[in-house]
Amino acid sequence: MCGIAGIHLLDESYRPDSLDTLAARLLLEIDHRGGDATGAACFGTYGVRVQKASCRASGFLSEWNGTPVGTRTVLLHTRYATQGSAAFPENNHPVAHGPVHVVHNGHISNDATLFDKLGKVRVGRVDSEAIPAVLLAAGWESADAGLERLSGAFAIAAVHEARPGELLLAKGGWSPLVWYANESVLVWASEGAAITEAWRRAFGTPPSRFNYASEGDLIRVTGANVVRSRFEVPKPPKPRVVRAESYGQSWHWNYGTARPALKPGPKSAPSLAPVDACRVPIPKPTELDLGDKLAEALAAVQDEAPGTVGVWNGAGWSDWRPGDDPGLADVRCACCDDWTDPLELEEVFGELVCLACEAQLTGAGVLDPK
Predict the structure, then answer these.
(1) What residue spans define the domains of the chain?
(2) What is the pTM of this model?
(3) Which among 142, 241, 244, 250 could disulfide-bond with 263, CB atoms 3.0 to 4.6 Å apart, if both were Cys?
(4) Cα–Cα dist 179/25, whole Å
(5) Can you spell out the DSSP letters for 147-179?
(6) Would you state the torsion angle of the CA atoms of residues 355, 360, 364, 370, taken in this order, to the nearest 10 degrees?
(7) Quick one: what percent of the chain has pLDDT higher than 90?
(8) 94-103, pLDDT tens digit by residue?
(9) Which CATH class is domain 3-230?
(10) Residue 256 belongs to what H/E stretch?
(11) How far apart are CA 233 and CA 148, in angstroms?
């Protein structure tokens, strides 16, 4: 899980004094999705300025140079490192291949194959580098053809150095992408809440409605024109279902979801039939006393990802805090960004999704329906 965000000025003459505030707050609001590295790339009349560091957003911002005069587009990223050490800058975002720069949330599973087929030498080890490589190979005007070569999950923003007034946003797989545009500025992020808070700090009253990218959406921004089109998302291979021979049960609390997890026994334990630990039914709240355990789970989630657990206060959502009634808590779905009962969530590849989104992923072949 990583966080992406950014800003594109649709009106070339628009120069908000709060551009740095907006960018900085976006980074802080998506920091819980990363933690291993933070980066920003600014594009404008001066060319490109890239700054990144293997630290959290707060540490990065203490040394960030801000947006230079003449900035048109800002790419922002907070990284949760999975492939390619965050100790090496070339693995951190924004990543570039030639003149194409990209921020990416998700995972590309065929990056090595793509580099072999393209006959290109990669700079780092991060899988995300395959994205600017295929965009460059396909040609900027044929970005859809490049994106269709990617296997895995992705929500991206891309900028070409030679075309600083243009921007590409795209979503493939289940990585979330939210955006908002008025006549002057377009802002995007992995979460609507990030845009809401950043906008409030920079401009005041935030937008009330956002655009949620669907799988296969390509948003091409050229100057002030925003054009939405579609590309074919390759059907990913079904993930391997982990099975285990186990006996007995223990309770495992993860992301606010209560489910019996099988506890492996010693080697001398009697062998039972394999059990799919991912598909054990979630118990109903009325069947178990979940109060204390659920509160512990919610506190752990909120500590790891602030803003993920909330309660409705009558006028808006506020962070759930230990001591609050866990029965009033809802958890944000990483797929549709809606608030959901914590007992009606599933963990999908490290993300929390509601049952409706899980059903859609299963129907799309992303998840094993067993």
Answers:
(1) 3-230, 243-363
(2) 0.67
(3) 250
(4) 16
(5) HTT--EEEEEEEEETT-TTEEEEEEETT---EE
(6) 30
(7) 55
(8) 999 999 999 9
(9) alpha beta
(10) none
(11) 6
